[in-house]
Prior knowledge:
Layout: H1 4-14, H2 21-33, H3 35-52, E1 54-55, E2 62-63, H4 69-72, E3 77-84, H5 87-95, E4 101-105, H6 123-131, E5 137-140, H7 146-158, E6 165-168, H8 184-192
Parallel strand pairs: 3-4, 3-5, 5-6
Antiparallel strand pairs: 1-2
Helix pairs in contact: 1-2
Amino acid sequence: MASQEIETLTAQLARLPGLGPRSARRAVLWLLKRRDTALSALVEALDAVREGLVECETCGNVDTSQPCGICADPRRDARSLCVVEEVADLWALDRSRLFAGRYHVLGGRLSALDGVGPEDLSIAALLGRVAAGGIDEVVLAMNATLEGQTTAHYIAERLEGSPVRVTQLAHGLPVGGELDYLDEGTLAQALRARRPVS
Length: 198
């Protein structure tokens, strides 16, 4: 049986997404074996993030600088704005290095069942950024869920009449996907988004 402090550390790690109690125990044991190198470095990194973490006032990303590194990067195309539900979505898209513009994090998605309305998200800030000018395209990168698509539709309606082009990520068949393994929603979206064979 481990000490209370080690058990507490294991329990805290087990709360992280993707880690269960067994994985957390293995991680703790690995850290304890390398307490002078890995454990100290981890504690220092956690402290640095805890002390310096801020939410970007421009886009809603989390970083240790204000504005965040993406908003401050002059190489980014300020005319393209990609709207995402959460910071994790921003990080996933940016990791792909396929979008060279800027981002806007809503902080969630519309959900009547959960009581999340437009006023609970940063939709007003998004509309303000578009109204300020300098943006040619707004890319709606919502998740392919009912709530995500409802949110995208709501934003598209609010942007009607704006001098911006509103686009949305394509949804449908994944590369390498087999039809008999796909759910009905994915198949329906793929059929609706079909295009001519060139």
